[in-house]
Design a protein that fits this description.
- The structure is a single chain.
- The strands form 3 sheets. A 6-stranded mixed β-sheet has the order 1-2-3-4-5-6, covered by helices on one side. A 5-stranded mixed β-sheet has the order 7-8-9-10-13, with no helix packed on it. Strands 11-12 form a two-stranded antiparallel ribbon.
- By secondary structure, the chain is an alpha/beta fold.
- It is 18% helix and 33% strand.
- This is Hydroxyacylglutathione hydrolase-like.
- InterPro entries: Clx_II_MBL (IPR035680), Metallo-B-lactamas (IPR001279), RibonucZ/Hydroxyglut_hydro (IPR036866).
- Keywords: Hydrolase, Metal-binding, Zinc.
- One of its GO terms (molecular function) is hydroxyacylglutathione hydrolase activity.
Length: 180
């Protein structure tokens, strides 16, 4: 599993996760489709799905455009407000993209429909990774737009804190989300 970290919008990120055997890929938080399409072409991969952490424009605004470019593209998320959503996921639901396994982790607080994505490959020496959207940052946690401190505490201690110790947190340096 290869992860391309793509800096966008001055203080935000998209992530292209590539299944190296099949050259198929999923993107987490497709905010800037033009930039993403350039990297998809450069990497020579086939985009199969979008995993959207939450509905805010700086994480999901590229969904509709990408769905037009790739009519078979699957768009996953936990909130009906996510554009081009094809699959509403639930807590602990597991998805599979080639050899890449994904566990959906419902982490409401920043938004009421926020989802983190825990990814790993079976029999791989690579550590698993968690894509935390605007729940967890290297320097703290996301702003409480639609939730409570109790929810965030549970997200950080019981959900993200329960992941395997070798999990790599693919978290931005600070909160880039500007809100709704």
């Amino acid at each position: 599993m290869k992860v391309k970290v793509i800096s966008v919008l001055e203080d935000n990120y998209m992530y292209l996760v590539i299944e190296e055997n099949t050259k198929e890929a999923v993107v987490v938080d497709a905010a800037v489709p033009k930039r993403l399409l350039e990297i998809v072409r450069k990497e020579g991969v086939t985009l199969k799905a979008i995993l959207t952490t939450h509905h805010h424009w700086d994480h999901a605004r590229g969904n509709e455009e990408l769905a037009k470019v790739y009519p078979e593209l699957q768009v996953y998320g936990a909130d009906e407000r996510i554009g081009a959503l094809t699959h509403k996921v639930t807590h602990n639901e597991e998805l599979k993209f080639g050899d890449i396994n994904v566990r959906c982790l419902f982490t409401p607080c920043h938004t009421s429909g926020h989802m983190c994505y825990f990814m790993w490959e079976e029999n791989s020496p690579d550590a698993p990774a968690v894509f935390s959207g605007d729940t967890l940052f290297i320097g703290g946690c996301g702003k409480f737009f639609e939730g409570t401190a109790e929810q965030m505490y549970r997200n950080l201690t019981e959900i993200l804190g329960a992941l395997p110790k070798d999990t790599v947190s693919v978290a931005p340096m600070s909160g880039g989300c500007t809100g709704p």
